[in-house]
Write a structure and sequence with these properties.
Elements: E1 2-6, E2 12-17, H1 20-23, H2 29-43, H3 102-118, E3 122-125, H4 135-145, E4 150-154, H5 159-165, E5 171-175, H6 181-186, E6 189-193, H7 194-204, H8 210-214
Parallel strand pairs: 1-3, 3-6, 4-5, 4-6
Antiparallel strand pairs: 1-2
Length: 248
Amino acid sequence: MDIQVKTLAGEDAGTVTLPDETFGLEPRVDLIHRVVRWQLAKRQQGTHQAKRRDEINATGKKMYRQKGTGRARHSDKKATQFRGGAKPHGPRFRSHEHDLPKKVRVLGLKHALSAKARDAGIIVLDRAEVEAVKTKALRQQFEALGLTNALIVDGAVSDGFAKAARNIPLVDVLPLAGINVYDIMRRNTLVLTRAALDGLEARFNGTDDEGDAAEGGATGPGASEADTVGHEPHVSAAEGTGAAGENA
């Protein structure tokens, strides 16, 4: 699949060929759903916790005598039916993370990329760099390119571009190490630079070692290919998200 390369100024900068084994698959919603669910579960904190009877700070004295009152028999006030008592079967501190095979995560990323390509939701930029760190100027360039709701992925995001883009609504910027399924699917348009395309090809061909290091779902922005999201799944500037993980 051939696609036109654009500059931030909206000029043509040649064409590139998107490999069919990455961008030409028939998208499978079930695979994409599994990866997104894995990403979101991995970044969920799970810090919710209700108190059990042994955790309630209250006296253990019996409320009233056992017999002769005509009322139900009770011990102390820590029982669940009393105000300030324990929570029956309440949430406990735990991890919501579950396993997902690496092959499924990688395949889910490929299907997410193919879904964007099928819907004509991919734009290729020559470079993602700005001369002056001006949000207004960059926003005007994005609007000229039709980027009102987009994820921009670069090989290594420059500080100037990240700072200029971080206050633009509905536009997220990620380094290649943080690309993930969740952030791809949550935006209408996926913008890839030439460097990002080269990095993706190297990763899927097994010649890039950075992918393994970043895997785990940065969900925050900054994780790796299909798994980002344990990290923080996404950032609005290029700090390295981490879906994922976090990433899908």
